[in-house]
Amino acid sequence: MGFWDYVGSYREKLLFDAYQHASAVLQCVVVATVAGVAIGVATYRREWAAGLATTTTSALLTVPSLAMIGLLIPVVGLGVAPTVIALTLYGLLPVVRNAIVGLRGVDPALVDAAKGIGMSRARRLLRVELPLAWPPILTGVRVATQLLMGIAAIAAYASGPGLGNEIFRGIASLGSANALNQVLAGTLGIVVLALLFDAGYVLLGRLTIPRGIRG
């Protein structure tokens, strides 16, 4: 069976796996973004705290994904749980680092001006600092998403959702008629999803970042 014949025959299953893959990545990116920005806000004013946050999230990223999921299985079991935890942890570094860089890059004169007109610290953060730091934060989210797209395929090792199941099935049945088709379908599906997500971030940037800030 040719590749396109395989895709046509298993179209519904491939689409379902692609939906699960995209859904898992999107949900984990959202959680990693919220947590990463919160960590950035809590640490960017202190050099030691920012360094600790960056070093810790960098260390998490050095743990091989297969090992991370393997270590989580005895704790939370198989399926969605180890996938979500692992992907969220891996997605933290780009967001945390870019949040710190973005917040530190805000012009102090603008913050002082906001303080001068009576804005509280919380309002200055929400109305001035975070909006101005949004472009680098969005870049961090974009990098995290591309990173998690590939790592999510390893979730199949723990019976997780997504296109990784197609790849693992193909590898497990190498030599059979459709083994290569399965690996290729899963791999190309992940690439297409990554490109679609990236295009979505480009559009989001155009809608949320003023032209003057975009440069």
UniProtKB/TrEMBL annotation:
<keyword id="KW-1133">Transmembrane helix</keyword>
<keyword id="KW-0472">Membrane</keyword>
<dbReference type="InterPro" id="IPR035906">
    <property type="entry name" value="MetI-like_sf"/>
</dbReference>
<comment type="similarity">
    <text>Belongs to the binding-protein-dependent transport system permease family.</text>
</comment>
<keyword id="KW-0813">Transport</keyword>
<feature type="transmembrane region" description="Helical">
    <location>
        <begin position="20"/>
        <end position="41"/>
    </location>
</feature>
<dbReference type="Pfam" id="PF00528">
    <property type="entry name" value="BPD_transp_1"/>
</dbReference>
<keyword id="KW-0812">Transmembrane</keyword>
<protein>
    <submittedName>
        <fullName>ABC transporter permease</fullName>
    </submittedName>
</protein>
<dbReference type="InterPro" id="IPR051204">
    <property type="entry name" value="ABC_transp_perm/SBD"/>
</dbReference>
<dbReference type="InterPro" id="IPR000515">
    <property type="entry name" value="MetI-like"/>
</dbReference>
<feature type="domain" description="ABC transmembrane type-1">
    <location>
        <begin position="18"/>
        <end position="201"/>
    </location>
</feature>
<feature type="transmembrane region" description="Helical">
    <location>
        <begin position="179"/>
        <end position="204"/>
    </location>
</feature>
